């Protein structure tokens, strides 16, 4: 996708949606899943991912589980109850936004 700036505002929602579907994930796993789902079109850098994860954790939307894997510490992120509700709210807002953009960009697509 040519303009990754469009994704920047959606990064938190993307993370929340993945965690809703997968249960819990660690950072690198999140970046690879996004890359896989977008067929390599969207690549989330560590510099963008970890600040977003820390912000979501600070907002009480994520819990962190620490596990030792192959003598390394791995942090797994998962949704809190508040995070589950927020994910639903954000996805609903995103769907409304997409519908509005479709109306503006190509009114013939009118999907009600």
Structural overview:
Residues 15-86 form the Transcription regulator PadR N-terminal domain. It comes from Muriicola jejuensis. This is PadR family transcriptional regulator. InterPro entries: Metal_resp_DNA-bind_regulator (IPR052509), Tscrpt_reg_PadR_N (IPR005149), WH-like_DNA-bd_sf (IPR036388), WH_DNA-bd_sf (IPR036390). It is a single chain. The mean pLDDT is 88. This protein has one domain: Arc Repressor Mutant, subunit A. Helix 2 crosses helix 5. By secondary structure, the protein is of the alpha+beta class. The protein has five helices and three strands; from the N terminus they run H-H-E-H-H-E-E-H. The relative contact order is 0.15. The longest helix has 25 residues, at 81-105. The protein has a three-stranded antiparallel beta sheet.
